[in-house]
């Protein structure tokens, strides 16, 4: 296929994304104030609790089987590699520039965590629906593409709230209070955090306090607790550190349920198909899930307006994050995926290979804003980074998508 046709095919989804994002920003302007802070908060809650898990459940039940799940085993490893490589490049960049410690958590988080969930749910189906799409019939492409994107969403959510969350927590090194999270934060989790925590009092703590308390607990337990009690205490500590309440988000739970229904044939016969006794459940979930993509895109546009705030952030930091996310990571992604194809690790599916490469070229995850606010780590600068990187993404995603399609065909 001619390179120009591939460019047009790659451009159309990005233009659709930009139009919906612009509508979201337009609705959030003070002159109209339709998507005001309170409206964004409530829409965030609906997207987080209803639309996204319904979308993941409905797609995975129809598209994932045990055989196909075995075939996409490389995707969790691929997403993990995007986090590890991004964090390593960010760390190297910080060592060269010698930035202050309070900026390091933000930079590392933005370099490590890409938006491997929401944006793929928008871009991949749009690519499939284009008349010049190189991935075959629209229905088949859309079915497989949404399955890959939903699986990526669940995997990315787990890595975000374990890997990136703890990087920012370690490098922020500041006093924080969960109750201080602003309702206008970018990610959907923030609205949930605010609602849940508003009914309880959370003390202000520091990293030193946590370390000191852990030392005292360990010393006390080693002298006076039984082995079984020690094991239970260690398990509780591990659960608290992993923050399982956040990791097991509704989207992840929806994905797990969808995988169970898709992989277990008796369950699939109960939910999927015109003659399935519980097909109404799957149909209802599909109807709700269809609302997820436009709602998420409108929220993205509305929340990016926060990046217009003034700040003393160095321009070099923005350039460094953009270079890492849009030049270094995609190049390394091509090398990794092509290497995996060469050694027979990845099966021959151009759409699957395209999604794997695309995971390296995405802008930072919008939930990074939520995490930085949890730890008081440069919230205004985070909004500026989000605005700058998502503006640049409109150009870089088009170019990289064109190249990726050319490479996998």
UniProtKB/TrEMBL annotation:
Pfam family, one: Mem_trans
Stretches that traverse the bilayer: 6-30, 42-60, 72-94, 106-127, 147-168, 242-264, 284-305, 317-345, 351-375, 387-408
Keyword Endoplasmic reticulum set for record: yes
Localization per Swiss-Prot or TrEMBL: Endoplasmic reticulum membrane
Recorded topology in the membrane: Multi-pass membrane protein
Record keywords: Auxin signaling pathway, Endoplasmic reticulum, Membrane, Transmembrane, Transmembrane helix, Transport
CC annotations in GO: endoplasmic reticulum membrane; membrane
InterPro entries xref list: Mem_transp_PIN-like, PILS1/3/4/5/7
Presence of the UniProt keyword Kinase in the record: no
UniProt GO BP: auxin-activated signaling pathway; endoplasmic reticulum to cytosol auxin transport
One Gene Ontology MF term: transmembrane transporter activity
Family per record: Belongs to the auxin efflux carrier (TC 2.A.69.2) family.
Function: Involved in cellular auxin homeostasis by regulating auxin metabolism. Regulates intracellular auxin accumulation at the endoplasmic reticulum and thus auxin availability for nuclear auxin signaling.
PANTHER family xrefs: AUXIN EFFLUX CARRIER FAMILY PROTEIN (PTHR31651:SF44), PTHR31651
Protein known as: Uncharacterized protein
Gene of this entry: LOC100816995
